[in-house]
Predict the 3D structure of the following.
Amino acid sequence: MKLEHVLKNKKGITPSRVKPILSFLIIIVMITPIIPVQAEINKDHEHPEVYWKHYPYQPPGTDIIFPTDEGSHDTSEFPIEWWYANFHLTGQTTGREYGSFVAFYKIQSNVAEKKEVRIFSISDIASEETYTNAQIGTLIASTDHLELSFEYITNDDKIDDQTNSELEIKNLISENQVTMNTEYTETTMKSTNQNTTMGTTYADTIQKTNPTTNYEIGHQENPDGLIQYDQWYTKSHDQGLLPFQYTLDVNGNSQQDSKPMKLTVDMDCLKQPLIVGSDGVVFFGDHEFSYYYSLTRLLVTGKITINGFSEDVLGNAWIDHQWGNFVNQNPPPWGLTITHEWFSLQLNDNREIVVGDLWERETGEKIDQSYTDGLNLINTDGSVELLKDYTITPLAFWNDTTDERFYSCQWHIIETSKSIDLIVTPVFLNQVMRFKENYPLLQQVLEELFPGACFWEGVCTISGSINGVSVNGKSYVELTHCYNCVEK
């Protein structure tokens, strides 16, 4: 009620109404001290910043709801969807720095039946080596929370005939599908039943969290050694899901040295979800859109394996989840309609930035629309500022001589209202995700996602200032856009 209305009503009070009003005021005065006390009881003093760390959780101003929208969406309505995470990790034995990223894709097109892909990369910063693995397989995903199980046949040197391997995939998956579906149904039913008892506090959750100490979890193989499983799921205990806490287990043989590469980690989200573009819907054209949220800083513990060596790691992670209709199912070129340059920045002052630019895939023309609907600045308290007046200027270019592609390889990010002035630089140049030519089916599927079935994605450093204060940090940069030649 507006102040002028209160004053107007107050003037009309008669003596006969004074006593009831006084009685009402006395009651209000008596119960008022109780209200703050009850609020204090419900308040988590140890972790006051994690009021959001519960399920279900729906941030204001968006249709996105957790944990439901962490799960899979209807492919007929959203023909493209992916789950992605990148990592900045430090080895606890050697002190070596690693970067890694993992992504699970499902894409629907008229070229073939529904196709699902997992890609995996580790960058060893000291040796300046990147190890990669990509698989086509079957992705089983829950529709009400994050629970992914990816079944695939290993792409190793023992399989030379793509046609035979495709047939073998179908037969092996068919043989295992009943078992997997049964296991998944039981898990889903258990998780669904647990959702009714999610009233634990954050302190209870932390006490009951069991870190992944068995690093072989989620890795199963048939006796013939051909079928493997990768998993990514929300952790749980006997009272239900543990909100915004995850386990990822992914593995494969590196395309570079044919040795096992593996990442098994637990992730605990430290900030509330970023709803990209304020409402979580980013438009890439008149009718093309993507639902989009990020988890911008997660504490990571786990284990990494590359080049025949394993060690425990600690670090930070970033998670992206997107689903939408920005995929062409009409005549060629099929697949994603856009290319992009995308940046996830984790600053040393506990702020993060996500920003990106777009190009039309078919014409190569830059689109006057941000991939992230503006520069999303996440403050230390988790609040978000969506800043529209930014530029990303390439400062240098790198020629990938293997595919004769030019990628930008250093960037100047400027935003005026916050005086953001940052330089992003790769820790080394050759961090390309490339796929073996002797797997034509995989090549065909990935070509729908990335032009030439390859892209640049790697670890970068950040230097510069915000509002005149020096900052630095680490970044992961993804480039699916490439240039015909070195032209600025």
In short: The longest strand covers residues 289-306.
